[in-house]
Amino acid sequence: MAQSLRIIVGSNNPVKINAARSIFSLYYPDMTIDCHGVDAPSQVPDQPIGEDETRIGAENRVLHCQQHHQADFYVAMEGGAEQFSYGPATFAFVVIANSQQRAIGRSSNLPLPQRLYDSLLQGNELGDVMDNAFKTTNIKQQGGAIGLLTNHHATRESTYTQALTLAMAPFIHPALYR
Fold first, then answer.
1. Mean pLDDT score, 105-126
2. What is the full DSSP assignment across 56-67?
3. What are the two backbone dihedrals, phi and then psi, of residue 35, each rounded to the nearest 5 degrees?
4. For residue 74, what is the DSSP state?
5. Which of 35, 76, 97, 148 has its CA 20 to 30 A from that of 8?
6. Total Cβ atoms within 10 A of residue 82
């Protein structure tokens, strides 16, 4: 019987849970992956603005999971946006932790139309802004802004998956990261 690996994701969003499950299945193919989400507060605004606020949101979610749940790994993803010198973009920070270490990763940027970013500065969440612009419903639990703006060649899940894949490096090669 395969050994089991318990993963707690700091969100009940199925996109985030599926991304975490797929990464741990990739890195631990001989183990049974028990991956589920829990409600974990980010303690940042619902729509984080800036890299620091976004990263802190993901860190806070993982910390909450560590304090309230027992697992082999804890995972959180937090999407944010920022006005960079070259234009506005959305991105995500990911945090993976176990009892020995923690790794922080970041996704690539998705350029955002200025008018959509400006709507975020007025307190709107990106998912709601995208639903309004594209006449969709609850896109944040589906392909997200990424899916809509790339004609579904990339999705919110594929972006989280890539960031999580990179953030796993310290767990796969722990001696190099000590």
1. 96
2. HHHHHHHHHHHH
3. -120, 120
4. E
5. 148
6. 19
- Quick one: tokens of 122? 């007025």
Token readout for 156 is: 């919110």
Share of the chain above pLDDT 90, in %: 90
Indicate the CATH number of 4-111+156-177 among 3.40.50.1820, 3.20.20.70, 3.30.420.40, 3.90.950.10: 3.90.950.10
> Count of residues for the chain?
178
State the amino acid at position 81 in one-letter form: A
**In contact, 76 and 61? CB cutoff 8 Å:** yes
Q: Known binding site for Mg(2+): residues?
A: 70
Please state the rounded mean pLDDT for residues 63-82.
98
Place of tokens 């955002």: 112
Task: Look up residue 115 and give its two tokens.
Answer: 């008018």
Binding site feature residues: 70
Beta partners for 5?
A: 33
